[in-house]
Automatic annotation (TrEMBL):
<dbReference type="GO" id="GO:0004411">
    <property type="term" value="F:homogentisate 1,2-dioxygenase activity"/>
</dbReference>
<feature type="domain" description="Homogentisate 1,2-dioxygenase N-terminal">
    <location>
        <begin position="7"/>
        <end position="272"/>
    </location>
</feature>
<comment type="similarity">
    <text>Belongs to the homogentisate dioxygenase family.</text>
</comment>
<dbReference type="Pfam" id="PF20510">
    <property type="entry name" value="HgmA_N"/>
</dbReference>
<protein>
    <recommendedName>
        <fullName>Homogentisate 1,2-dioxygenase</fullName>
        <ecNumber>1.13.11.5</ecNumber>
    </recommendedName>
</protein>
<keyword id="KW-0560">Oxidoreductase</keyword>
<dbReference type="InterPro" id="IPR046452">
    <property type="entry name" value="HgmA_N"/>
</dbReference>
<feature type="domain" description="Homogentisate 1,2-dioxygenase C-terminal">
    <location>
        <begin position="273"/>
        <end position="426"/>
    </location>
</feature>
<dbReference type="Pfam" id="PF04209">
    <property type="entry name" value="HgmA_C"/>
</dbReference>
<keyword id="KW-0408">Iron</keyword>
<keyword id="KW-0479">Metal-binding</keyword>
<dbReference type="InterPro" id="IPR011051">
    <property type="entry name" value="RmlC_Cupin_sf"/>
</dbReference>
<keyword id="KW-0223">Dioxygenase</keyword>
<dbReference type="InterPro" id="IPR014710">
    <property type="entry name" value="RmlC-like_jellyroll"/>
</dbReference>
<dbReference type="InterPro" id="IPR005708">
    <property type="entry name" value="Homogentis_dOase"/>
</dbReference>
<dbReference type="InterPro" id="IPR046451">
    <property type="entry name" value="HgmA_C"/>
</dbReference>
Length: 431
């Protein structure tokens, strides 16, 4: 297999082309009568055929065997805690927070798919945590229900995909498009992280609008893999999540046998540490959309089914203002996860691996200690927020928490206490 190498995306919607053997891509046409090297030509479409060219996601694959070369699917008991139904129990309007989900007991071998635990979701996305201790062996997976946004929090992942290999570490992300077959390998052993399963339009970079031509995530920093193939025969399993259920089929070879490909429907990675933070330097804390990395737009202009937001290292220099996020209520359902370091809006209880849900019109904001500290801070000096990385999956509707998340021993059932110390300071006789 070829070494891990990448090509720049140079902007979403662009055409990429890569071949692991010289001349494996046909000179002209997408489906020649006979493809080079005796390969099969196959197309995969991630969007409707008729969407605008700039939004179209499709790729031509030149592979050793066509994707159809496997047995019939049968129901599988894989992914028992990876759910697509979020209405088993009522979701309370409470603020909810969880300690890091514990890794499986020593000696327990659990791969990426079987370790997945769904925390919540809605019609636009499902939000999950993985705690894997073993690489996928003789098993390959693809998601028929949506694309996967993978955010490692502990341990690197090697994502061996049909179109090549991606290696990601904490503070990097990867997106595996709908239908792309892949295998997750653990070069460092046990690994934990967050996964958002996007059911809506494929994730894309936001337009910058009044920000101008620069800022936020730069297109050139998104990388797609170079072609790399496996020509391996054996007894393997191909697993899919289809309409919320898991199905398995026997396959007598590795499905990662694409020798060349070109198109726009491809996996990619991005380093969150390269995010170019925009913010306010006069007064007030900016809305979280100022930290938007990727989004899935809906049919309603200005409304996304999913926003992916990163709270990266930054400088707060606003004068005579409350610098942390203020107390607020909004229509959004917010899932936050701490990837690395300390999140500046919380004094404690939100260590790396922790996560929270603050739902539609549920009041939340800084805890008592953070409020008191920020209220008395010297704002003539800037705050350098270093060694930090938190992420948010934000949706325009309620995130319904699953029963397994609500009943988890990792849930902080006394989370509400962090606001108990907020005192009344009101004095109508003194401004």
């Amino acid at each position: 297999m070829a070494d891990l190498k990448f090509q720049y995306m140079s902007g979403f919607g662009n055409e990429f082309a890569t071949e692991a053997l010289p001349g494996a891509l046909p000179d002209r046409g997408n489906s020649p009568q006979r493809a080079p090297y005796g390969l099969y030509a196959e197309q995969i479409n991630g969007t409707a055929f008729t969407v605008a060219r700039a939004a179209n996601r499709r790729s031509w694959l030149y592979r050793i065997r066509p994707g159809a070369a496997h047995d019939a699917f049968a129901p599988s008991n894989a992914g028992a805690h990876w759910l697509s139904s979020f209405n088993q129990v009522p979701t309370p309007p409470n603020r909810m927070r969880w300690d890091p989900i514990a890794m499986p007991a020593a000696g327990t071998q659990v791969d990426f798919v079987d370790s997945m635990m769904t925390i919540g979701g809605n019609a636009g996305c499902g939000i999950n945590v993985y705690t894997a201790t073993a690489s996928m062996q003789k098993r390959y997976f693809y998601d028929s229900d949506g694309e996967l946004l993978i955010v490692p929090q502990q341990g690197r992942l090697t994502l061996a995909t049909e179109l090549g290999n991606l290696e990601i570490e904490p503070q990097e992300i990867a997106v595996i498009p709908c239908g792309i077959r892949f295998q997750v390998r653990l070069p460092d052993g046990a690994a934990r992280g967050f996964v958002c399963e996007n059911y809506g339009a494929p994730l894309q970079l936001p337009t910058l609008g009044v920000i101008g031509s620069n800022g936020l995530a730069h297109p050139r920093d998104f990388l797609t893999p170079l072609a790399a193939w496996e020509d391996v025969d054996g007894d393997f399993e191909i697993l899919t999540k289809f309409d919320g259920q898991f199905w398995t089929a026997k396959i007598d070879h590795s499905p990662l046998d694409v020798v060349a490909w070109h198109g726009t429907h491809a996996p990619y990675k991005y380093d969150l540490r390269k995010f170019n933070v925009a913010g306010f330097i006069s007064y007030d804390h900016p809305d979280p959309c100022m930290n938007l990395v990727l989004h899935a737009p809906s049919a309603t202009p200005g409304v996304d089914t999913l926003d992916f937001i990163a709270f990266a290292p930054r400088v707060l220099a606003m004068l005579d203002t409350f610098r942390p996020p203020w107390f607020h209520r909004n229509i959004a359902g917010e899932f936050m996860g701490n990837v690395h370091g300390h999140y500046d809006a919380k004094a404690g209880g939100f260590e790396p691996g922790s996560m929270s849900i603050h739902n539609t019109m549920t009041a939340h904001g800084p805890d008592t200690e953070t409020f008191e500290k920020a209220s008395a801070a010297d704002t003539s000096k800037p705050d350098h927020i270093k060694d930090t990385m938190a992420i948010m999956f934000e949706t325009p509707v309620i995130i319904h928490a699953t029963q397994q998340a609500l009943e988890s021993p990792h849930r902080q059932r006394e989370y509400v206490r962090v606001w108990e110390g907020l005192k009344k300071h009101f004095n109508p006789k003194q401004r």
